[in-house]
Design a protein that fits this description.
The chain contains 3 helices and 6 strands. The chain has a 6-stranded mixed β-sheet, with helices on one face.
């Protein structure tokens, strides 16, 4: 099933699909915060490094399949398949947008 994602969120998933950490970091505000697997990454440099590490550590595909608005956040549920522990898994991505950038992202099972 294909869903229509807001612009910068679509850019995020497109860059993730290519494993392009630099393009992913450009989707975020300069002082954005990402929380993933209990770790917090603040700022574009930390976000770029987080994604670069994830891209080299595991091979995976992400397929967004649901989108809802919840408490001012855009929640995208995605199916991930790859060579990481616990695969396959459905994850929820909680996005907070600021203008045309992502200000916050929390990824949870």
């Amino acid at each position: 099933m294909t869903i229509e994602l807001p612009g910068v969120i679509a850019e995020y998933f497109a860059a993730d699909k290519k494993g392009n950490a630099e393009a992913i970091s450009k989707c975020f505000t300069q002082d954005a915060v990402v929380v993933d697997e209990g770790n917090t990454y603040t700022g574009r440099d930390a976000i770029r490094q987080w994604m670069a590490n994830a891209s080299t550590q595991y091979n995976y595909t992400v397929e967004p399949f649901a989108l809802v608005k919840e408490d001012g956040r855009t929640v995208v549920t995605s199916h991930l398949v790859g060579n990481f522990p616990g695969s396959p898994v459905d994850l929820r991505y909680f996005f907070v947008l600021e203008g045309d950038k992502i200000a916050e992202l929390e990824i949870v099972p």
